[in-house]
Write a structure and sequence with these properties.
- The chain is an alpha+beta fold.
- The strands form three sheets. It has a five-stranded mixed β-sheet with strand order 6-9-8-7-10. The protein has a three-stranded antiparallel β-sheet with strand order 2-3-4, with helices on one face. It has a two-stranded antiparallel ribbon with strand order 1-5.
Amino acid sequence: MTLLSPTCSFCIIADRPVFLDIFRDLYFELPADLESVFIALMRGDVVSKDKLNRLVDRGIISVQGGRPIIPAKSAAITGSALEGFSPVARHPWRYLPEIGAILFDFHHRLKSPGGLYHIIQRFRRQKLAANVSSPACASETGRACELARQFTGLRPGIPINTICLLDSLAMFEYLRRRNIWPTLVFGISQRPFSAHCWVQLDGTVLNDAVGYVRSRTTILTV
């Protein structure tokens, strides 16, 4: 059976597939000849072994294990935990050391080869083991928004530069420890190319603005 490699994810922009190699943290497109082969596989067409092997060699396709060849998709954004709320004057500072420890841990892990891939695989295993149900109930969404605002309010107290990937990984972990299971989303825009990462719970983005997130095409969800 032909499957998408576990290290690879993709989206479709202007009828063309754009890929994310999670292990190498690399975004890329295929040359025209290989792109047509990949699109044929996506349609369920039969392709020659020769052509298939070229995609296997590039780490895009797997014949031994992986996921269906389907573009990434995330829930439509309907609101933000951070928009329309007055800044909270005081935050429970007792959580600052925990947030700092999470950020420093992921900052270190991301520097190692395949660091992002291993973090994502761990998140996937944890969500699977937790048997997460969807969608979240209203009370769970409300609590997630409160925790997201708490995290965001305390974040400036940590002496590490704010980066969407690092901060989204850390917020995911902070919520996970409190039995809130959001979705980690990677999105891109083209011409000029830019990549972004955020956390959402169903249709509520927890650490970004609605308009900014809606301008991206989802390429990976966790």
